[in-house]
Amino acid sequence: MITLKNISKSYTSRGETVTLFTNLDWLIDQGSFVALMGASGAGKSTLLSLIAGILSPDLGNITLDDTDITTLSRDAMIEYRGQHIAFIFQAFELIPNLTVEENIDLILDISHAPRRYATSEILDKVWLTGKWLRYPTELSGGEQQRVAIARAFVADVPFLLADEPTGNLDEGNASRIMDIIDTLHKETKNTIVMITHDADIASRADMIWKLHGGKLIKK
Ligand SMILES: Nc1ncnc2c1ncn2[C@@H]1O[C@H](COP(=O)(O)OP(=O)(O)O)[C@@H](O)[C@H]1O
Ligand SMILES: [Mg+2]
Fold this sequence. Notes:
Layout: E1 2-13, E2 16-28, E3 33-37, H1 44-51, E4 59-64, E5 67-68, H2 74-84, E6 85-89, H3 100-111, H4 119-125, H5 141-154, E7 159-163, H6 171-188, E8 191-195, H7 199-202, E9 207-212, E10 215-218
Parallel strand pairs: 3-8, 3-9, 6-7, 7-8
Antiparallel strand pairs: 1-2, 1-4, 4-5, 9-10
The structure holds adenosine-5'-diphosphate and magnesium ion.
The site of adenosine-5'-diphosphate (ADP) has 12 residues, from β1, β2 and α1.
């Protein structure tokens, strides 16, 4: 479960303050798969960074299950994040000088989270059987994003935050990515928040929210 209570967030740069949210509340049920839509600049990525504890709100509390992450120290937040939150990004963000297998296994060392799948098992589930020893540059964009999905599911963490995971892919690859995320979500029952600007992609989620004018509207 993810609970945002009374969240305010502004950015100040060059003496100018832009307020993205005031008094924002949001409740995401345990195990649900939520899509977050909204115009470019609406604050979607900022909202995801707040849930990840990468940014802190100016006011308000963010609770993941029973932990109010807004009370954690920087070091405690890093440890908490590793053990609880997985990420998928638009630009895949694989490490170029590591193989597929090393990219997936590295996250287990960094996160201190328990393993959920054997590496061979998760590679089968993302349809990359036999591609262990490839480097990211030896894979297509769709395959690279499937490695990123394997990395996001290999550790046993309850939350997945995805920022435009299909944004760099064509329709066919995007659809395959969503099939895999859907299957793994049903299997692991993790809680997913996925940003997308694509209505077809959003329709794969259990629920669609739109961020507009600093407010969240349920679609
Ligand atoms: N670090 C920052 N400093 C100042 N302004 C920022 C910063 N990050 C984002 N913004 C501004 O906040 C707004 C929302 O950004 P973002 O959360 O990335 O929106 P979205 O993901 O919906 O496109 C934008 O106007 C952006 O320019
Ligand atoms: Mg964004």
